[in-house]
Amino acid sequence: MKETLSHRQLQLLIQVSNVLNSSLQIDTIIDSIMVQTVSVIDAAGGGVLFLYDKENDVLTAKSDSKFKSNILEEVRLKPGESMTGLAFTAKQCLIFSNRTEVERATATLSAKNMRLMMESIPTLPYSTICAPIFLKGECIGVITLDSFDPSQRFIAEDINLLQAITHQAAVALEKASLYREQENAVKQLEHLNNMITEQNLALSRSVEIHNSLADLVLNGEGLPSILGFLHKKIGLQLLLFDEIGELIAASHDSDFPEEDIERARSTAISQLKGSGFSNFPTYEQIHDDRTRLAILPVGTKPRLLGALAIAARDEISTVDISALEHACTVLSLELVKNQAVFDAEERMHGELIDGLSKGQLDESILQKARLFDFDQNGYFMAIIVHLDNVDDFQKRTSILRHLASMANRAFQQNHLKGIVAKRQDQIVVILAFQQKVSTTFASQNVKELVSLLQKEIALKSWGTTVSIGIGRIHSGLMMASKSLQEAAKCIQFIKSNGAKNQIISYRDLGVQRLLLQNSEGDLTDFMEEVLGPLITYDKSKKGELMPTLFAWLEHNQKAKEAAESLHIHTNTLMYRLKRIEEILGVSLSDSSQFLNIHLAISLYPALKRKGKSN
Q1: If we measure between CA atoms, which residue out of 439, 406, 426, 402 comes closest to residue 495?
Q2: Which CATH class name applies to 7-181?
Q3: Strands 291-300 and 283-286
Q4: What's the CATH code, domain 223-339?
Q5: Using an 8 Å Cβ cutoff, are 454 and 470 in contact?
Q6: Do 230 and 243 touch, CB atoms closer than 8 A?
Q7: What are 238-283's pLDDT values in tens digits?
Q8: Cβ neighbourhood burial of 342 (10 Å; 0-12, 13-18, 19+)
Q9: Can you tell me whether residue 603 is helix, strand or coil?
Q10: Which of 128, 314, 320, 577 is the most exposed place for a label (fewest CB within 10 A)?
């Protein structure tokens, strides 16, 4: 075998070298290697360039000429497998001069690789030449050329040319590989530079938001301004709920759906009641899956002050999350400040109410009264709003605080001056009137006002109702204590009857005040003395005399109306009234006896509910 190249081969090699050095793109070079190699070696009817995959210990087809590439891409040759694998293992150029040698070498193919080879080539080669590619003394691949023409066989001279080509290919691949590494390094540096630029911008934005929030707090702007700034700066819908799910501040687009607000409230309440919040917000799809909802805690365990609900179209960026978490800290401080202001004001209200309830009117009480613009000679009315059923202390405290705020707002909107304080399970209100007002007018107006307040409370998701007691209006600050006692008696009356969600005015209690001012035993004795024989008679005879007496008194002693309500004839009614007089030994025309009967009848239902009557 000649070790030197002929003049023609040198020309061909120069041609191949020029092509391989015309590009630094590794994929282009690999394809060019095969195109040029097949074109300059006469016997080559096609060929494949295999590169060694060190990690998987296989040779994979990277480029081919005149074969079915999509099939060859699946071929994975082990070192020593087939002609290519043998050349790789031998680390020298091998020539398979005839089909017998080709068949013997290809017999080592796996079943899968044999099938893929036969699908990718027109027929089994008549001869094949395989030359390993060396880079820095290490075999990195193999060029395999096949002859499918029986008149064209590879000869020894082809080995010299192919080895020279593989040497040029190795140099070109190394240069392309270095260029790719350099190119990747540049891209990585560009990527890192972009990341640093983005992070710097994000950090600057975050610092700007933090500083702006600090300025808002220092300027005393309050919760609405804080949320308004965040909404404008970040572009998200923001809803701030307190610990019982009341919306206390918000900033969102004008078309933000009401149902999304309620969904956010429900989710916030669930989070506040549940096991707590994660370190990073979890998202929930709302509004036909077009809007995401994230909830962040305001405050820390065990004293969560509320939750910030954030509605967004896309996932919130980490920078915005950081800003919102900082905002939650600011919001919690603002809530604590607001609560401190409220508690201080409520404490002053409470000190005045406690002093008045004890009948004190010393200089200290008078000074507090003047602070709230209470005229010592004015007119005063007390109201007590009682929570019917809330066992949880923290929830009760929060609801009472809301009740106090709602009451203050309701009275201010109606131009009524007053003070409000929390006391156990209720709030106590004292309204002040500068000049004498009609007792009927004041009582009716206040009843309508607290009725609206009660309805507003019923719409809340607090899981409780309220009962309201209203005292009478009295002249002079000293008499405010009497109105407080009357309001308290109204609450006592409601509770003693096992009722809830009631509004009772002391002025409207009428004779039922006796239930509050006398012992039940005395009242029961009185009722039994007056009505006992009639009650006994009705029970023993299954009579209708007690209902008849009730109907007659209810219709103001009008026989016809009472008879119609009982669906009886007037004569029957008159007969029953005569029988009642006989059984009780009284005359219904006697004013003093009639008064006793009327009073006993008024007491009967309440005492019967208490189970005190026979």
Answers
A1: 426
A2: alpha beta
A3: antiparallel
A4: 3.30.450.40
A5: no
A6: no
A7: 999 988 888 889 999 888 888 888 888 888 888 887 755 554 555 5
A8: middle
A9: helix
A10: 314
